[in-house]
Amino acid sequence: MQGPTSDVRLIPAQLDALRPTQITVGYHEVEVKRAHWKSLDKKARAQTISTHWFPAVLGPNGQYFVVDHHHLGLALIEEGESRVQIMVLRDLSWLDSVIFWRMMEHFQWVHPFGPDGTRHDYDRLPNNLTQLVDDPYRSLAGELRRVGGFAKDTTPFSEFLWADYLRPRIPEKRIRKNFDKALAAALACAHDTQARYLPGWSGTIAPR
Fold first, then answer.
1. Domain boundaries, the chain
2. Fold type of domain 9-134
3. Rounded to two decimals, what is the model's pTM?
4. How far is CA 156 from CA 96, 117, 159, in A?
């Protein structure tokens, strides 16, 4: 997720002090990242921390708002890590709250939607990464991309767009009861022409 980079710099930060710019994560994806972390030795973990910069914006009251890597951040916290490096994209700390969020939305750096796909006010965003809420459809969309259901795309929050597409098509109960069966159903939905508006769609349109 990119934007203007005139102020870009790297600084160390405490994970528990970072402010999320979304309300939900797919906890299945968090678990996958935790399992991967556990498989790494000490050297590989140190390398991961040093090379996975968390893009952030400096906002009101000197707080850093991360605009990507929410799943990794939560996974690291749950694995006992406390410090990471952040890549400061912009310093917007001098703006008042209304203009700050207007700019965040302008650059597509915020996604204030709940686990049912409903949009909320910015004051509903969590104060820290551990308050992120699980959205099973975001889990499904993340795994769908991983297995090739759609291509990785630079569109901000593309997995959330896919989650909203899957939401009315696959019952939440199916996802929670049998994730693999839900994933198979999602794969079928992913190649339907109804999904052709979505980023990374890899289906085909039959000639007329």
1. 9-134, 136-195
2. 3.90.1530
3. 0.89
4. 24, 16, 8
